[in-house]
Amino acid sequence: MNTTQPIRSKSQIRKLADYFLKIGQPRNHLLVVLGLNTALRISDLLRLTWNDVYDFDNKRFRARIDIVEKKTRKAKSIILNHSIKSALAILFKQHAKEGAFLIENSRTKEAISRVQAYRIIRDA
């Protein structure tokens, strides 16, 4: 049986996130950083939009994300730490638009699929 094992080494986790920056993929870098720092399920991560993390009226990142989890339907408030805000800032310069998904497919402008997110992480 083939099972996926978690990465347990902090240095390997940092290398994974840095790898995407090194090859010029800030969207995938953000995917890894958000996943590691929020502990959200992938279905909840992929539903996040720029409006969830950025206040376009006041031109600044929000202090936290308030969401309702898809699976459990529980309300959850997550503080945006420095690592998350740094990853957001890198991608913001290139791709931020009101209402757009954070982790979007560049062709369709929709959120990437769970399968695609898995492939991105596995291939790295």
Kindly describe this structure.
This protein is globular. The chain has helices spanning 10-22, 26-38, 42-46, 50-53, 82-95, 114-123; strands at 54-55, 60-61, 64-68, 75-79. It has one domain (10-123): Orthogonal Bundle (hpI Integrase, Chain A). The strands form 2 sheets. The chain has a two-stranded antiparallel ribbon with strand order 1-2. It has a two-stranded antiparallel ribbon with strand order 3-4. With 124 residues, the chain is mainly alpha-helical. Helix 1 (10-22) runs antiparallel to helix 2 (26-38).
Short recap of the structure:
Helices cover 48% and strands 11% of the residues.
| CATH topology call | hpI Integrase, Chain A
Number of helices: 6
**Major β-sheet strand ordering:** 1-2
What's the multimeric state?
A: single chain
List SSEs in N-to-C order: HHHHEEEEHH
Number of domains: 1
* Rg measurement, Å: 14 Å
Number of strands: 4
On the 0 to 100 scale, the average pLDDT is: 88
* Alpha carbon gap, first and last residue: 22 Å
Q: What is the helix content?
A: 40-55%
Q: Please state the overall shape, judged from the principal axes of the Cα atoms.
A: globular
Strand content of the residues, in percent?
5-15%
Low-confidence stretches: none
Largest sheet: 2 strands, antiparallel
The structural class is: mainly alpha
Q: What's the CATH architecture?
A: Orthogonal Bundle
CATH class: Mainly Alpha
Name the CATH superfamily classification.
Intergrase catalytic core
Characteristics of this structure?
4 strands, 6 helices, mainly alpha, two-stranded antiparallel sheet, 124 residues
